[in-house]
Amino acid sequence: MARRDFKKNVMSQQPWFVFTIILSVLLLAGCNLPRTKKAAPATQTPILPSKMAETWTPVVTPKLTDTFTPATLTPITLMVAPAGVKTEVLPAGEVQSSPPSGFRKLLVYPVGGMEGLTECDNSATAPVFQNAPPQIHALTQDFEENNFVTCGWKKDESVSITLTRPDGSQERTTQTYDGSTALAYSLAMAYGMQLGDYSLAFESPSGKVTHNFKVVWPTEPGMATTEGKKYFVYGFQPGEHVLVLAYQKSSDALRLSSWREITMDEHGELLLDDQFKDDLLAVAGDTSGPVWSSWMLGVFIDKNLYFEQVKPCSGAPAAASSRSALRR
Question: pTM for this one?
Answer without folding.
Answer: 0.68
